[in-house]
Known about the structure:
Strand content: 5-15%
Number of strands: 14
Mean pLDDT: 92
Shape: globular
Low-confidence stretches: none
Distance between the termini: 23 Å
Amino acid sequence: MTWFLDGFYLFVLSLLSPWLIYRAFRTGRYRRGLRDKLFGLRQAPLKGAVWFHGVSVGEIHLLRPVIAAFRRRYPDIPCVLSTTTDTGYEEARRCFPDLFVFYYPFDLSWAVQRSLRALAPRLIVLAEAELWPNFLMAARRQGVPVALINGRMSPRSWKRYQWVKPLARWLFSHVDLLLMQTEPYAQAVRLLGVPSDRLAVTGNIKFDGVLSDRRNPRTKFLGDMLQVKDEERIWIAGSTQAPEEEMVLRIWQKLRQEHPNLRLFLVPRHKERFQEVADLLVRSGVDFARRSSGVDLGRPVVLVDTIGELGPLWGLADVAFVGGSLDGRRGGQNMIEPAAFGAAVIFGPHVWNFADTAARLLDAHAACQVDNAEELENTLRRLLENAHERRRLGAAAYAFVQRQQGATEQTIARLGQLLKTYQPAAA
């Protein structure tokens, strides 16, 4: 199995290499940490740690309360953290300056085995995803238990797993503990053949790690820098994808005529699109500033072209549009963060990545869902004109988030039980 997988991965990499090289030179992606990704860690500063892994920025933020709680409960057990993307690496270094942070190895047998030998972890904790067969087999051979936390199963993932159900069953059999966000997610995994004694429903950790006090230092700093005034209404469109920026900008231009105090903070999801969105703003002729410039940030439109600031930035929003939900390809982004601040939250119809959270927010009358740009414009206009409805929606969202908290402690308790099963393989 190992050699077959290695051959398959190398074949795919050879096919994709021209595109990857082009992207690397054009955007700078894929180059950082390439040696460790391809060949594994040569050495690590410590052994016997708990290895936490988060794919990118979202998973790194999810792990913040988990790692903090784990270190409080087990102060004598060291932790290390891996990530896959460049933005995830930068955010991990910022959030965990005292931890050893490194790039997760590609699923090539020599890379994963070398990394596991260098670290000799006593437990591996994967946030939400990243189940790779060579890695899981190598961990099993080394006697290291593996846990998946905050697990979910989107409809798209479910359909893919159904196509390869025997392979999916085999893959999940190499995970010792799956901690799922909801019972429907857990049931989906059971239907793939995972026994119930490896499953538990612990809730969604993302409710625990969010900021909810608009007076927190990071939000206040951004408010001062962006020169936000009490009489202004702030619309934040966050984690946007193409063509959502164009839709949002067109709506803002119309509503600005009706509400001269309306400002727009636009936050694209991926940093490689910052320049593309800046070019769109230039062509539109609007008066805008780039957050990265640090200059004239009191303008009507601000392009937030920085990484790691969207979380606290939501605390400035009167109305929040959560992107990746109108384009029909991404399945939505995290609407918990703006809800926790009590913003009036709006998202589109395509939210399968956060289907349970979106449905529960709607059931609690704590968010608005729109089908297209026209409905987004009408909903935003209504909320701007009706301050009572806007505040009611925000208060309901804040209360909803507060009721959901507690998943982190359940997760730490389950991980503690799994730690006891660690039996290192004989040398």
